[in-house]
Amino acid sequence: MAEFLGLDPNRCFIRFLCKTIYTDMIGESQAEVPVTDYGFHGPSEDFAEAFWWSVTRPSGLVAKAPERASWMQTFASGLTRIRQRFNRDNYPGVVIPVENPECSWPFPVATPEPIKTP
Q1: How far is Cα 75 from Cα 17, in angstroms, rounded to an integer?
Q2: Which of 45, 47, 70, 72 could pair covalently with 41 via S-S, beta carbons 3.0-4.6 A apart?
Q3: pLDDT recorded at residue 101
Q4: Cβ of 34: how many Cβ atoms within 10 Å?
Q5: 3-class DSSP state of 44
């Protein structure tokens, strides 16, 4: 995602200790700012915050960070295709519904074939 926004995540060699470097990178490139202040801690945290918003507050992500929302939509479309292969009913207690009218997770977009267990 950072590369999509015109940033170089490799400048943050220690991914979780690069708040100053990442903040400077965003300012230098005039890239869209992270969704939350915590996203400035580095590319990993920026991704995590944007992903969380894409699941829990998709319209908020579009309003606040449209470039991140666009990238997440493409990223999530791949996850949705993978998710269609699994039947969540085979994993009772593992998948917990999110109470949010904007979020369809964990409800599948298609009815997959049940996974046969040995």
Answers
A1: 25
A2: 45
A3: 58
A4: 25
A5: helix
pLDDT (mean) for 20-29: 87
Query: Which residue type does 47 have?
Result: F
Total number of residues shown for the chain: 118
Apex CA 102: angle with CA 75 and CA 48, to 5°?
40
Q: Which residues of 7-33 are buried (b: 16+ CB within 10 A; e: fewer)?
A: bebeebeeeeebeeebbebbeeeebbb
Report yes or no: 50 and 39 within 8 Å, Cβ to Cβ: yes
The contacts of residue 62 (CB under 8 Å, 6+ apart) are 69
Cis bond leading into 106, ω under 30°? yes
| DSSP H stretches of helix in the chain | 19-29, 43-56, 58-64, 66-83
pLDDT digits (tens, 9 = 90+) for 42-79: 888 899 999 988 888 888 999 999 999 988 888 877 66
Give pTM, 2 decimals.
0.62
For residue 38, what is the DSSP state?
G
